[in-house]
Amino acid sequence: MNNDSMKIPQATAKRLPLYYRFIQNLHSSGKQRVSSAELSEAVKVDSATIRRDFSYFGALGKKGYGYNVSYLLSFFRKTLDQDEVTNVALIGVGNLGTAFLNYNFLKNNNTKIQVAFDVEESKVNTKIGDVPIYHMDDLEKTLADLHVPVAILTIPQTAAQTITDRLVAADIKGILNFTPARLNVPPEIRVHHIDLAIELQSLVYFLKNYPD
Ligand code: ATP
Which annotated residues bind NAD(+) (predicted)? Predict the structure, then answer.
């Protein structure tokens, strides 16, 4: 992200990729403007929040006109660094890891899993999609050679902290953690935690307790 975007609150920053995806679709369908009500309906964020989010980056919608789609698109592209590919490493080529390698993320934005690591000999030196799988012994050297700032963790929980410590020492800046482990990292390292089991449990809890 560039320096201007540093002033955007974190909750707003987290919604930017969501807005970006929708604005891209609008732009490719030839639409030139969009109202906050239309955006709200499409991305399921209330329109007051959208107006506040957009005001942070100077996109001031006009009453009865809405927002200019090209302006929004160029803002998001610049802010989310869409002109630059960010290299990502995936650690742990099990069921979930394999699914991510097949999916990769280029379809959505310019992040690309360039390399994966595992300890299992039968997986090492193979490829999934076009992503090569290396042995964990080669982690530090490979990350340094490829300039990888982001890692996805799809290893067993028990291995998560040890591997995180190695990633931090190898100069990784951000970790997307799919293991249930809560990771200890220095303050300058950013960890986003996605626990699918917890998300599912909380969804079921809400269905039961807040049925309307
Ligand atoms: P699978 O069915 O392939 O075992 P899984 O997702 O059920 O997949 P997990 O036990 O969660 O299996 O392990 C995920 C992957 O992490 C496996 O491919 C495993 O070989 C790998 N793995 C386990 N320990 C480590 C480690 N210390 N470093 C790197 N990879 C590891």
Answer: 92-97
